[in-house]
Amino acid sequence: MPRPRLLERYRDLLPVTPHTPIFSLGEGDTPLVRSHRLEKEVGCGELYFKTEGCNPTGSFKDRGMVVAVAKALEAGTRALVCASTGNTSASAAAYGANRGVKVVVLVPRGNIALAKLAQALGMGAQVMPVEGNFDQALEIVRALAKRHPVTLVNSINPHRIQGQMTAAYEVVDELGDAPDYLFIPVGNAGNITAYWRGFKEYHKRGQAKQTPKMMGFQAEGAAPIVQGHVVENPQTVASAIRIGNPASWQAALAARDESEGTIEAVSDQAILEAHGLLGIWEGIFGETASAASVAGLLKLVHAGLDLSGKRVVCVITGSGLKDSEVTLDRTGELPRYPLQVTAIEAALGWA
Ligand code: AN7
Asked: What's the rounded Cα separation, in Å, for the pair 38 and 252?
């Protein structure tokens, strides 16, 4: 028997009715990987990575998308529309293609990772690069969704958030309780909102004894929540979180305050360093934006946060294959070697 996937596994916790179509591309049930080295470095009790890059399109967006698309079909939608820094468009393209629904995605021209563009195009979405940033593109698709019988599948869509709550359920199901801390990157702030609601829901149902402190991290050049105002021209190497006016701003503040957590900024340099450590120390190749959670963990620990005896989960929101160009920029050009055993040995110092 195939394993039950997200819509079936968490049916009772999702807005699934007898009329909701049930389908799957294999989303959810992603690995919770115990840290090999970073755990000792930060001195916490247990450190885990929730590796959301293992979802079918390589990011956490698939959890929310499968629910949003199922509900859109149930309601008889004509098309799915979204604005995206890339991952939402890849996910919408996949689920739209799988169900035979038209998908329209607006992306900031020149500012999305190539692999994500290829995913959307390769799965038949109508990709419309626009002269503007993510926030501006989101305004356009909001207007489209008001004027036409189509479904907005950005995280403003409550079904997206409900789907993404399943990641928190999985963490608790696997650990037997909520962790003490959850570290997570913040862009449009849908995911931090979803995790918090998920943990609260499980706590309310008695599935978890506690809820975690929510520790969110924006990139320094795209940190509206940290600065307390909209950032008109957000800039960061982590293109997925290059967002200046997050849709779930208020909900993210609620997650921070109710959980007694924090939302802070991390520099691009810190994100790139954390990305390197995650790969080299742990064997986890995350997306650049995903490393904001690890950069945040390191930043707070170096600033004196004591995590001894604590259970910590870092969400790695997407796969490093998504924006591998950033990694290659960081690692630099490689020398060439002669095709000779002795030359290779000499270069390795094995001579
Ligand atoms: C890898 O795809 O906004 O705070 O349009 O792709 O829930 O927005 C992506 C966001 C973190 C931030 N990590 O999550 C989009 C988009 C990765 C991401 C985020 C995104 P939210």
From this structure: 27
